[in-house]
Design brief:
Elements (H helix, E strand, L loop, with lengths): L2 E5 L6 E15 L2 E10 L5 E10 L6 H8 L3 H8 L2 H6 L3 E3 L1
Antiparallel strand pairs: 1-2, 1-5, 2-3, 3-4
């Protein structure tokens, strides 16, 4: 399991963040943003890691889009263990 670290806006210092297993899907006109939500282990402050940004929903495979909306735990775990996804979001991590 990969441990993820980030400066917490609640604690004010770098701390471990835990994959919540939940996604946030936000519509903005005809575009959507999709994030995987992480929470500070200590204070539960949230940090959203970007999966899709300002993307047409039709550009996301429909099966995957439905899994985001359903907060599929397996898909959340897949993203949470993807080193490239974590690097893209400037997350520090340890294996």
């Amino acid at each position: 399991m990969i441990k993820v670290y980030h400066k917490c806006g609640g604690c004010g210092k770098k701390t471990e963040f835990v994959n919540s297993g939940r996604f946030r899907v936000n519509a903005n006109g005809n575009r959507v943003d999709v994030w995987l939500i992480y929470r500070c282990r200590k204070c539960k402050h949230s940090w959203n890691l970007t999966i899709y940004e300002r993307t047409k929903p039709s550009s996301i495979p429909s099966e995957k889009y439905e899994l985001f909306l359903e907060n599929d735990p397996d898909l959340a775990e897949t993203y949470g263990n993807d080193k490239e996804f974590l690097k893209k979001n400037n997350a520090e991590y340890k294996i």
